[in-house]
Amino acid sequence: MEFKISRELIAQIEQYVEENREQDLKELLRDMHYADIAEIMWELDDADSIYIFHILDSEKTAEILLELHEEVREKILKELSPKEIAEELDELSTDDAADIIAELPEERQEEVISELLDVEHAKDIVDLLRYDEDTAGGLMGKELVKVNENWSVLTCVKEMRVQAENVQRVHSIYVVDDENRLKGRLSLKDLLTTSTKTHIRDVYIPKVDFVRVNTQSVEVARIMQKYDLEAIPVVDELGRLVGRITIDDIVDVIKEEAERDYQMAAGISQDVEADDSILNLTRARLPWLVLALLGGFVSVRLLNGFSNAMNDHKELFFFTPLIAAMAGNVGVQSSAIIVQGLANNSLSGSLWARLVKEVSLSLLNSSILALILIAGSHFILGMGYDVGLTVSVSLITVIIIASLIGTFVPILLNRFKIDPALATGPFITTSNDIFGLLIYFSIAKVILGF
Amino acid sequence: MEFKISRELIAQIEQYVEENREQDLKELLRDMHYADIAEIMWELDDADSIYIFHILDSEKTAEILLELHEEVREKILKELSPKEIAEELDELSTDDAADIIAELPEERQEEVISELLDVEHAKDIVDLLRYDEDTAGGLMGKELVKVNENWSVLTCVKEMRVQAENVQRVHSIYVVDDENRLKGRLSLKDLLTTSTKTHIRDVYIPKVDFVRVNTQSVEVARIMQKYDLEAIPVVDELGRLVGRITIDDIVDVIKEEAERDYQMAAGISQDVEADDSILNLTRARLPWLVLALLGGFVSVRLLNGFSNAMNDHKELFFFTPLIAAMAGNVGVQSSAIIVQGLANNSLSGSLWARLVKEVSLSLLNSSILALILIAGSHFILGMGYDVGLTVSVSLITVIIIASLIGTFVPILLNRFKIDPALATGPFITTSNDIFGLLIYFSIAKVILGF
């Protein structure tokens, strides 16, 4: 059922644009969803997508603007006058409009706001611009249905019809007092099944989940997920109802959070996409590579310190990439599981129990690997048993230490309120490389004596 | 606003349980959300959490059962008779009830189903059990509000009041024909703002997004996200309306998908948690470690092949972990960005453009790193410029090749319909280790001649 863009469609659109066949284009795009049109515009040249944007009517273009890839949106916004942008924003909900304004350069922001036609809408948008984008205030919208606890259900229904005109989706009906302080809620189901003669203060549910304007968005996401909420009201410092957050905004927060952790584990420190500029990508990637390089310097020095082993046991140096790789892989596995457990709040039990478990797990895994290694180094690589034994004993030790580092570094960071995801990826592989090689050569020195 | 479990609370509950103070416990837990109680039970001993489960009433326990950690749920279900389980399920929505039944051993499933009181509910649950859990059928619930296109709005409102009794949240009102085939929808807003005298067939919106029972759940998630849907109807092969999927179920799909990709990138091949058994964790982690070990064997042989370089240029061997680490890190960075781009459907442009971009990016990054390396190897490590130069030239080449492997292997896998996430983590680091070392020593041989 999902729409798929074909090369043929793109080619046809390009042809229509070239031949200036406005009517045919309109016809072609008429029944398409705005998200699909946004996807098409992402595939087109800048000039073509700007052309398409101009021939569509503003009800559709406003939604398209919202769905567009950031890069395309920036280009299109540059082409539009403040008045034209304001016309688009008049069609959007307050939170979406505020998000788009926030992307504009500051001097343009004011110009656009002064061109907004609907004064109430403009006031709401300006209000939303005050909040940090990573907080409940930055996520919330102003569109909601609220009723006064002192109203009768009849007044309430009348008022709601008016309010509902401005609200795309009615999630909950919030109940406030005369000071606009959040008191509770009326469910939609109640609305459908309750007699119209009742009074609000007698039927509303006084228990209502809410968040404050300055609650962090990841925290809002966790609350809404945990309690299975589709919308949550937002109150200010005085408990006054100032907005609501819906689950679709939270879906984006959850996705961004997961992507950030994923990128962090891969050694990418900023939120980037494959299609970002080379400069942005370098900024996100280079710092971790420099870290790995400096870690590499340490390992060079370390191997240099053991260089007299080369006289009698040069094979030891053939195993260094193997030891480093195993230490790195084990470390990443352990840390990833812990980072996820911390993110989901699903770690239970004592540190001691975790230590015992991690050591048992590594002992089991590393023993199996050591057996493969002894057999392999003898039969496949043709090395002596003394080397095989040395490398195997080292491997077991390295794996245990690497898994302990992978497990406890994220837990420690989390204790000190540092993002544990920092401890995955290049950080853990680099430090485990160093520890791994140090352990390996130290053990080799003891067993082989050099 | 979020509930936090304190050690004191857990201690208090444990004490109450020990002293058998049922009333105090009930009092303490009365106003708590079921998700919070589930969290508490996860922290308690098995016996204690079973005790708590038994003293609460079934309206609450049913929801708790749903929120419990899988391990605790399994233990509690074992303690309950089929009749008791059926009582819990009678309180739940069809999709949640079906999910819990699916977790039971097969012989118990039938026993439980036969004990369900509400025959309609039981029929719906049995129907849902037919579907694969990774499809729309496996996600959907039976609770929905639907009206016949031939009804008047008046009949419709009456019927809806009855239907809404069984539906926790009314998302959309679906319109069907006499054969139960999905025709369109009525929005809740329409319901609030339309006069009751109209006929359904004259007011419904014939355009409605839907998925089929066998649509994959990740696909459903993508559609609902892309089109900003809070619920989507599900139709069978004949276009008949059989269920609906709500956004809260999709939130779980999105989270699981992100976690799976994350784990894959970390070399964990099954969905595991930190608190899973050692055997499960080994099964998820060991295969990747064996792969890395076998890759290590290849690198041992490779270095062995270049062992005559040890006579005059033993420093070369000190750099092997550094080269392997850089190749691995660059590969993981490139592949992670591509895998994410593929998952989000956000890659645009030709393969050729991507190739040019990736090479430019690597050239920029690796040149900066090479400068640091030349300086570092001379001033910090005290090596000759010939070694520094050799390693630097190798580093630049290795980084370019590693980034190309990281970029194009996932794209290739995706073309052949293989999950590109497989190409991140240990797979890419292991293959890049090998290629990296091969390139390094080949270049060294050319420059230094050995």
TrEMBL record, chains A, B:
Belongs to the SLC41A transporter family. The chain crosses the membrane at residues 286-304, 316-339, 359-381, 393-413, 425-448. This is Magnesium transporter MgtE. Keywords: CBS domain, Cell membrane, Magnesium, Membrane, Metal-binding, Transmembrane, Transmembrane helix, Transport. Residues 140-203, 204-260 form the CBS domain. It comes from the Bacteria. Pfam families: CBS, MgtE, MgtE_N. The keyword NAD does not apply. InterPro entries: CBS_dom, CBS_dom_sf, Mg_transptr_MgtE_intracell_dom, MgtE_N_sf, MgtE_transporter, SLC41_membr_dom, SLC41_membr_dom_sf. Homodimer. Acts as a magnesium transporter. It is found in: Cell membrane; Membrane. It is a multi-pass membrane protein. It comes from Flavobacterium rhizosphaerae. PANTHER family: MAGNESIUM TRANSPORTER MGTE.
